[in-house]
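Minutes, structural biology subgroup

Action item carried over from last meeting: produce the structure token record for Crp/Fnr family transcriptional regulator (Actinomadura geliboluensis). EB confirmed the sequence was re-checked against the source entry. Recorded below for completeness.
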Amino acid sequence: METPFWDALSPRAREALRAAATPVVIRPGAFLMREHTRASQVFVLRAGAVKVWVDRDGETAILDVLGPGDLVGEVEAADDGIRHANCEAMTRVEALVLPAARFRAVLDAHPGAVWAVAAVLAERLRDSNDLRIAHFPDDPERRLASRLLRLAGRFGTPVKEEGPDGAPEESVHVQVPISQQDLGRWAGMGRRKVAQILAAEPLRDGLTVARNAIVVRSAGALRRLAGRD
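Output recorded by EB:
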């Protein structure tokens, strides 16, 4: 699993960002940024979940789901360009927000922090390439499994439960309100295809997707589908 931007910073760089930024609380459904605008703010997420999405001719495509420690707006901070996507709070979000120019000043004063931003960009490029590869040849199971692993890694909480045979087993609970339709929008397929994959082996007994939570009982099955074993 990738290291979030915040965790990759040195203690001094984190303190400098705290001093330069303003803490904000964002309600569910509110936008941190909107596509095609020139607002020049950078957000460091401290709690909650945010989805990054674009609208193309009335169709929604989800690019990512970000969580605590992640960075939002770094591309526009680097090139002063127009926002390339919408960023919408899925839950109550706590974040640090600062103007792009102030963010760049913190990076200039703490050169090592630039590598934390570079790691964010590299990870997103790698993820984008993996998703492209899974389209050729078409491999929807791999795409969906990689999205579910990302959610579990970013938002998952281990929970001890009683298994079907009465023995204790550990599952991962993901408290993020993401629907099967949105999983499809993120993985590049329709809701019906998502439902088919979830209902088939090997995920049928190892995963439950509800509207407000995902329960992963077999991370191994997800890793195998995603080609990570």
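Discussion: The chain has a mean pLDDT of 88.
Next step: EB to file the record with the rest of the batch.
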